[in-house]
């Protein structure tokens, strides 16, 4: 699971051009939206595309995304249980 969390941090930094962050700056339990990384709804759409492309997970319900994108830890746990790639 720690490899997946590391991978997610790297992918999110690259995908969303978060050049001000390094992998070490992101705690597994930091909020991705709001006070944490400060992501917004456009970023959420990009994360949904990443889930589909990289892990074979299609999210259709925005409420589901809100729960899954709470933190790296929550996201990694969801991917472990639902990935098809």
From TrEMBL:
InterPro entries: ACP-like_sf (IPR036736), PP-bd_ACP (IPR009081)
Gene3D superfamilies on file: ACP-like
Family matches, as PROSITE patterns: CARRIER
A Pfam family assignment: PP-binding
Annotated Carrier domain residues: 1-83
NCBIfam families: PRK09184.1
Name used for this protein in its record: Acyl carrier protein
């Amino acid at each position: 699971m720690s490899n997946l969390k590391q991978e997610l941090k790297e992918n999110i930094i690259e995908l969303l051009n978060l050049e001000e962050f390094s992998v070490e700056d992101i705690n597994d339990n930091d909020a991705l939206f709001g006070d944490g990384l400060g992501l917004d709804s456009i970023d959420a759409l990009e994360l949904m595309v990443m889930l589909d492309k990289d892990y074979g997970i299609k999210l259709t319900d925005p409420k589901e995304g809100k729960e899954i994108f709470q933190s790296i830890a929550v996201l990694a746990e969801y991917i472990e249980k639902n990935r098809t790639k």
